[in-house]
Amino acid sequence: MQGLSRLLACMRPLAVLCGLLLIPPASWVLEPAAAAGTSAFVKPAPNVVPVEDPPRVSAESSTGETHPARLALERNPIHDESNPDYLRLQRIDEAMRFVKRDAIGFPDWMAALRSGAISPRAGLSATEKMDVFDLDIVMKNTKEMPHVLFPHQSHTLWLDCSNCHPRPFLPKAGSNPVSMSQIFRGEYCGMCHDRVAFITFFSCDRCHSVAQGVPAQK
Prior knowledge:
alpha+beta, three-stranded antiparallel sheet, single chain, two-stranded antiparallel ribbon
């Protein structure tokens, strides 16, 4: 019995410490479970001012109207809203609240890059430098459409050469028979555009920017 008493005496400080660790802060209270068989949950106390949600950003374009492309996307959500974890996902208007919208109403990534709203890293350690390559390529196989100006600089400000070469683009002139049908199917430029970068179907002039017979200008 004497040995047991000594053991209990030694364990008493540990029990007190565990009790202190289990006590929630004064700003939090425990509420009973809403249904039998479920555990209690922690929620902010009524006298604590909740943190306000970030301001919601409209999906409107620069013209003030919601573009059909944006409306089509919102009518066809890619997430299962009935999933109980759906509300855990970050809202697009919260994530993009500091990013300007383009003419269609989607994030203007280049404007965000130039303004400093985003600052892509070249590596995990943040010590690597972007290998920016300033070379414009004019694609002239565009039939009656204006030629396409591809600026390496705006792409290599946040992408490494290996993101595009040797797949999907072979680094050799005339080796990439790009067509709009392939882009719409997610090939070539379509691997990023229409998914992450701007929507090509509603932004023809952003690529087809060089009039035929007129030298390209920066």
